Predict the structure.
Amino acid sequence: MLRKFLKAEKVMVENRKVKVKYWELRTKRGARRYSAEILISPEDCIILDDDSVSNLEARTACLVPATLYSRLISSKPTAA
């Protein structure tokens, strides 16, 4: 599969910026697929795939805040 860069954007969640890169992929059969690389931190990257860029952008808008909040909750120590 050949990957072509489409665009990059930053999603703001409260005071934090998360970088998102969008890619177009061509399958061996010629179909188009789209991917988003969501860079939470240098060692934490999420990849989403979909059939359209608009669906991917909508999913990204929901997933980024949910991921950041869930990681924040899971990093807090639990009370004994």
